[in-house]
Amino acid sequence: MADVLMIGIAGGSGSGKTTLVKGLVDCFGEAITVLSHDNYYKAHDDLTYDERARLNYDHPDAFDTDLMIEHLKLLKEGRPIHCPVYDYTVHNRSREVLLVEPKPVIVVEGILIFESKALCDEMDIRIFVDADADVRLCRRIKRDVKKRGRTLESVIEQYLTTVKPMHEQFVEPSKKNANLVVPEGGKNLVAQEMILERIRKHIREA
């Protein structure tokens, strides 16, 4: 496929990545394909629900990043992919797959996408969304309880045992691989407009 613009959007859980991505999709619609690193969590059909619930989902090893890289290469070549689908309510991959068609702009989003050099190398623009830790925790609680069927206690326990330490060990250091750091994600209208203009320019030229 001629000239694909690949944009990576990373940042801690609850930082505002989804809001920023949604703003891009709302603006450009069909011209954008969004791929979430979360859909590439490894399948664990061999484990019970309780065992899966205890896994560390904030460590780079939790993801099948090699498969994501392979899929991004195919999309760049103009070929569709079958993206895995992750089901948060059962802590496992769903039986479904999602047909993803190549588009002029591909947005890759996830907490750890800048931790992998090979994944970074696939991206033309790398954006890190930054937010205060307390804000991120509040957003995570609200999201996981409301949308993912978790209890307040389980969300807080997961945050303290894996999310916070993994953020400090992997996510925060990966910020150095970004081209642009955006405080407050989708609520940062100045940064958002700069990103939108860069995408408009690419679509015009493509």
Give a structural overview.
This protein has 206 residues and is of the alpha/beta class. Helices cover 43% and strands 21% of the residues. It has helices at 17-28, 49-53, 65-76, 117-120, 133-147, 152-174, 189-205, and strands at residues 5-11, 32-36, 81-87, 92-100, 105-109, 125-130, 180-183. The strands form two sheets. A five-stranded parallel beta sheet has the order 2-5-1-6-7, with helices on one face. Strands 3-4 form a two-stranded antiparallel ribbon. The mean pLDDT is 92.
What is the secondary structure topology, with strand pairs?
Blueprint: E1 5-11, H1 17-28, E2 32-36, H2 49-53, H3 65-76, E3 81-87, E4 92-100, E5 105-109, H4 117-120, E6 125-130, H5 133-147, H6 152-174, E7 180-183, H7 189-205
Parallel strand pairs: 1-5, 1-6, 2-5, 6-7
Antiparallel strand pairs: 3-4
Q: β content, as a range?
A: 15-25%
* Euclidean distance between termini CA atoms: 10 Å
Low-confidence runs: none
DSSP helical segment count: 7
Spatially, the strands of the biggest sheet line up as 2-5-1-6-7
Key features?
about 210 residues, alpha/beta, 5-stranded parallel β-sheet, two-stranded antiparallel sheet, 7 helices, globular
Summarize the structure.
This protein is an alpha/beta fold and 206 residues long. The protein is built from 7 helices and 7 strands.
